[in-house]
Design goal:
It catalyses: ATP + protein L-histidine = ADP + protein N-phospho-L-histidine. It is an enzyme of class 2 (transferase). Helices cover 54% and strands 17% of the residues. It is an alpha+beta fold and 436 residues long. Strands 2-1-5-4-3 form a five-stranded antiparallel sheet, sandwiched between helices. A five-stranded mixed sheet has the order 7-9-10-12-11, with helices on one face. A two-stranded antiparallel sheet has the order 6-8. The structure holds adenosine-5'-diphosphate.
């Protein structure tokens, strides 16, 4: 219909419409009147359809056009088709935007879109959680909500090649890495929580520094003695003996440190499967007991072992032995000579309880929270003298975490400490559970 519509079509329609009126005008001898009636009719017809068009477009807003014929049918049909196509396109665009927004919502980072005036256009849910930016903040200026001098400086500079790290506006303990990506007329702001990452990085740096420090001291001592022994003829024999003793002590210290580091790294990288084998803790502790007697020879503590011989648990024997002996050896080291130490391994309602109590020097509150950190020592000089590396309790903590348990410490300065942990009931094999 549209294809064969040309400028001739309305002209032909007009001629066809006027022709009968011209004939009637001639026949009745009222040509002018006949024309006036015909043209009035024509104008009225057009106005009527124009009105229908207005009502359709602005009042009813329905998709179906009004019924019409002639040229108006073509016009209505054309508008109808265009509207239909527009609606389809709008729906497709709407779907696309919806999918894009859903994708942006699912991003693991806080995302904000803002313009060159710094006005927020859109933000996702994580931006609400990490930065406290709400949906109602659309239209607000970004730096009114993220008040941070470093961020302001970063924006002013306008060099967004590298990200910036700032403290979270919601939590001063959290660190956020922020990237700004300019695109089209807008900017994309992406923030992610890097607190854990930074902590890990700091831990790694501290760790390397600590290990180097721990190894440097004995190495310096040994180097000093070796230099001295370069001229043995000038060194008195007593001095040589002292040097050898000291060097072998330092070598043992370094060997112990390396061994503990290896244990720690083995545990951290997964270690043995915990539920694969059972551990006869009583017989394991009897070996530890004989080791303690040689260690206790100088100290002369009274050490009692109260052990449930039938209490067997799932776990890694090497790891549990390392944890238990660390706690016992610490009690021996940090209790003044002639102290009392009680080791116990028994069944409780919660599971299998291991505890070591001593009447030693105790640990003050401010140190308690940190003693399981790597290389943390209450008194560095003293701990080194006892051969401590500050890794023992860190190993205990990791071993226990792998055995679904945690270290409990109660301590009073000057009175003593109790270090204990409970392996939960599911770490005790079924038959032993019934037996108890
Ligand atoms: P270290 O190798 O120095 O003994 P640990 O990690 O085993 O390292 O212990 C950390 C610190 O905790 C020790 O330096 C010591 O100050 C304190 N500590 C551990 N056990 C005891 C205890 N039974 N009594 C008092 N202080 C203790």
């Amino acid at each position: 219909m549209i294809d064969n519509y040309s400028w001739r079509t309305p002209l032909k329609n007009l001629v066809l419409f006027l022709l009968p009126w011209v004939i009637i005008g001639y026949l009745t001898d009222h040509f002018l009147l006949s024309m006036v009636i015909a043209l009035t009719w024509l104008v009225g017809w057009h106005y009527y359809h124009q009105w229908q068009l207005f009502v359709w477009l602005w009042r009813t807003r329905s998709l179906t056009p009004p019924v019409a014929n002639g040229a108006w049918a073509t016009i209505f049909d054309g508008i109808y088709k265009q509207q239909k196509a527009n609606r389809k396109r709008r729906r497709q665009l709407g779907d696309l935007i919806k999918r894009f927004r859903e994708g942006a919502q699912a991003l693991p980072d806080a995302t904000i879109v803002f313009d060159h005036e710094n006005t927020i256009i859109w933000s996702n849910k994580l931006a609400h959680q990490l930065l406290g930016i709400k949906n109602s903040d659309v239209g607000q200026r970004l730096n009114n909500l993220i008040r941070n001098p470093n961020f302001e400086q970063y924006q002013k500079k306008g060099d967004f090649k590298e990200p910036i790290i700032i403290t979270s506006p919601l939590n001063p303990q959290s660190l956020l890495e922020i990237r700004i990506i300019p695109y089209a007329e807008q900017m994309l702001f992406i923030a992610r929580d890097v607190t854990k990452l930074k902590q890990l990085e700091n831990m790694r740096q501290d760790f390397v520094a600590n290990v180097s420090h721990e190894l440097r001291t004995p190495l310096t001592v040994m180097l000093g003695y070796l230099e001295m022994m370069e001229e043995p003829e000038h060194t008195p024999p007593a001095m040589i003996k002292k040097a050898i003793d000291e060097m072998s002590q330092q070598t043992v210290r370094m060997r112990d440190l390396v061994e503990q580091l290896l244990v720690l790294s083995k545990i951290e990288s997964g270690g043995e499967e915990v539920f694969k084998q059972t551990v006869n803790v009583a017989s394991m502790l009897s070996v530890v007991q004989s080791e303690t007697s040689s260690l206790n020879a100088v100290k002369g503590h009274q050490i009692s072992f109260d052990i449930d011989n039938d209490l067997i648990v799932y776990g890694s024997e090497t790891e549990l032995r390392s944890a238990m002996s660390n706690l016992i050896f610490n009690a021996i080291h940090y209790t003044p000579d002639g102290g009392t130490i009680a080791v116990s391994w028994k069944r409780t309602k919660e599971g299998a309880l291991f505890s070591v109590s001593d009447n030693g020097e105790g640990i003050s509150q401010k140190h308690l929270a940190r003693i399981t950190e790597r290389f943390y020592r209450v008194d560095k000089a003293r701990s080194r003298k006892t051969g401590g590396s500050g890794l023992g309790l860190s190993i205990v903590k990791h071993v226990l975490a792998r055995h679904y348990s945690g270290l409990k410490v109660s301590s009073q300065v000057g009175k003593g400490s109790t270090f204990s942990f409970t392996l939960p009931n599911n770490m005790i094999p079924e038959k032993d559970q019934k037996a108890s």
